[in-house]
Design goal:
By secondary structure, the chain is an alpha/beta fold. It has 2 domains: 300 residues, Alpha/Beta hydrolase fold, catalytic domain (Rossmann fold), CATH 3.40.50; 204 residues, Rossmann fold (3-Layer(aba) Sandwich). The protein has 18 helices and 18 strands. The protein has a 9-stranded mixed sheet, sandwiched between helices. Helix 13 packs across helix 16. The protein is elongated, with a radius of gyration of 27 Å.
């Protein structure tokens, strides 16, 4: 993953370095906009009614805060606070404020401070709750007042994983909500639609970046505590949130330079802090490398960079810098004296709902899960409309491409080591090259009195592989007693092939090492699931090399979720004579349709886009 990513980053640099004209810059900008929107599954319609309503007003000195709700999609309710300065005589500039991963979102103290500074600078400000934050907890139970799934990043990952098999990304919904917020602002009498800016930090910086890339209506942008470089972040060992994973975009050369370049020559202020988990080194490099694109238009002063000596936060100093920048470019006002921080308001006074949660007030409100289920049903209908033979052929072609793309082929060079005996069976350890730089591994069990080295091979495929033998001891004994050798296989990231930990989390948990490496594979247009299917196919090569009696009689015994890899390998390789799956995966659609599921270590079983082409029963 690292090697392929570094190569992609270098190629992206070369492509950007070759841009020598405005036309070339515009071509790259339009191409990446199209590719990004495609990567996240396209965008929902923006033609549905917003049905906006104001549920209350809080009066402050010099401005009011309206408590606003609108529907970004039918019954998908967005809660927001609209800060409106007093005495507006004609339409003026406005700022969309996109919240980071703060549980309280728009009514949290940090974001109240920023919005207070912006509105006192004379700007109309719309601060909206993201999915899973503020008043938009998707798994809130109104009857008990409890959460079945934790809010914020946990909810994002939970709902986001179910988007992936459809070829969607959670960013699809974050971006669409923000675009509909611009629609709402554009319809306000106080706002000039041609003078709308956007800002936000952390996760809000991600959303700001999405808007910079995808919505040409944005006139000015101030992304905060997010802009860096993909390479600098890759080596930190940190994962990212679900809406921050843009499938295949690293393979296409996208980096944070492209986020900034998407706005040239419009005004952009990059805001950063020195003590951030987003590497400031990457921020400096990115900003310096893109300055020349503003120079192409003779407006170098429109790209600015401000950093504060702080930890990860939208600090008051950054907010003051943003207010000055927006005031200059959206209000043409460089005279107004900025004021200090506004007094905090009790969060409950800023709620747009009575209960503090959309799902507490509106029982039929929709979230990402409901959208995903509807999207899946449409895909199922489209698949079923195709003749079975045509559907299967197209599915196999897509699957083969996913499994082989990016693999570095290598001779096996198998090594066999005698380990002695276990439960009366001869045991050998076998190591081979699954691809260049990556091993395959198995323990090979056999009854020496029956099979010698020549018995046909059954490949055993289960979670933890060779690290979980005792639980499967009866099965191992039974298969070997039947005259076969049993190859207990470790696939990438499992058994003896588990990676070393690169962060403080459990290897397989949310944000853990396997989660981080797998999401980085998603950026490459790849997946751990596809890699593991390839590992199984390479294990067939190893099995043939280890037994002269194997031709035409390789079988697979598999249990649980690992059966997915066996079924997909079986669809691609005719050498598998039989698959016996115990309590295995029979289809993927039922998981996507389930509102609740066990999310632990699930990401390794997802092949993004699969359900656009097939479910397991189609193969």
């Amino acid at each position: 993953m690292y090697d392929r990513s570094f190569a992609a980053f270098a190629q992206g640099d070369r492509v950007r370095d070759a841009i020598a004209s405005r036309d070339q810059l515009e071509a790259r900008r339009e191409n990446l906009r199209e590719k990004l929107i495609d990567a996240i599954g396209g965008l929902p319609s923006c033609d549905t009614p917003l049905n906006p309503r104001t549920t209350g007003v809080v009066a402050r000195e010099g401005y009011v805060i309206e408590k606003v709700m609108f529907e970004s999609r039918p019954r998908a309710y967005v809660t927001a606070n609209l800060y409106v300065p007093d005495g507006i005589a004609s339409p003026r500039g406005a700022v969309l404020f996109l919240c980071g991963h703060d549980r309280e979102a728009k009514h949290g103290e940090e974001y109240q401070t920023v919005c207070g500074i912006l509105v006192q600078a004379g700007l109309v400000v719309l601060a909206m709750d993201p999915i899973g934050q503020g008043e938009r907890f998707s798994y809130f139970d109104a009857s008990s007042g409890s959460l079945a799934v934790i809010d914020g990043i946990v909810e994002h990952d939970y709902a986001g994983q179910q988007c992936l098999p459809l070829g969607d990304g959670l960013a699809r919904y974050f971006l669409h909500d923000a675009m509909r917020a611009v629609d709402y602002l554009s319809g306000r009498p106080e706002v000039d639609p041609a003078r709308i800016g956007v800002t936000g930090n952390s996760g809000g910086g991600t959303q700001t970046s999405l808007m910079m890339l995808a919505d040409p209506r944005i006139a000015v942008a101030a992304p905060a505590t997010f802009i860096m470089s993909r390479e600098s972040y890759l080596v930190t060992g940190q994962a990212q949130d679900a809406e921050q994973i843009w499938f295949g975009m690293t393979a296409l050369g996208l980096d944070h330079e492209d986020i900034l370049m998407a706005m040239a020559p419009k005004p952009v202020l990059v805001l950063a802090v020195t003590n951030d988990f987003f590497p400031i080194e990457g921020t400096h490099r990115t900003v310096e490398r893109v300055r020349r694109f503003w120079a192409m238009y003779g407006c170098e002063d429109r790209l600015r960079f401000v950093e504060d000596d702080s930890h990860h936060k939208y600090t008051a100093a950054l907010a003051q810098a943003a207010a000055s920048f927006f005031r200059k470019h959206l209000l043409a006002d460089t005279v107004r004296q900025l004021v200090g921080d506004a007094d905090m308001i009790d969060p409950k006074r800023l709620w747009c709902t009575v209960s503090g949660q959309v799902r507490g007030d509106i029982p039929d409100a929709r979230g990402v899960h409901e959208e995903t289920v509807d999207r899946l049903r449409a895909l199922e209908q489209a698949r079923e409309a195709l003749p079975a033979k045509e559907r299967r052929a197209a599915a196999l072609a897509w699957l083969k491409e996913r499994v082989w793309t990016g693999r570095k082929e290598s001779p096996l060079y198998p090594r066999v080591t005698e380990l002695g005996h276990w439960n009366g069976l001869r045991v050998r350890s076998v190591v081979w090259w699954s691809q260049a730089g990556l091993h395959g591994h198995a323990f090979l069990f056999g009854d020496t009195g029956r099979t010698g080295d020549d018995g046909p091979v059954t490949i055993a495929l289960w979670e933890k592989g060779t690290r979980d033998l005792q639980r499967h001891a009866p099965t191992i004994r039974k298969i070997c007693d039947g005259g076969r050798q049993l190859m207990v296989l470790d696939v990438s990231g499992s058994g003896a092939l588990m990676p070393n930990a690169i962060n403080r989390y459990d290897l397989y948990a949310f944000y853990g090492t396997v989660h981080k490496l797998t999401t980085d594979l998603f950026w490459l247009g790849d997946s751990l699931a596809a890699m593991r299917v390839y590992d199984v196919i390479r294990a067939l090569d190893a099995a043939e090399a280890l037994s002269r009696a194997n031709k035409g009689d390789i079988q697979i015994y598999t249990t649980g979720r690992f059966s997915l890899y066996a079924h997909l390998a079986n669809a691609l390789d005719s050498r598998i004579a039989r698959v016996e799956a115990v309590s295995g995966t029979t289809d993927f659609s039922s998981w996507v349709k389930s509102r609740y599921y066990d999310e632990y270590n699930h990401i390794g079983f997802i092949m993004p886009g699969m359900l656009r082409h097939f479910d397991l029963q189609d193969l």
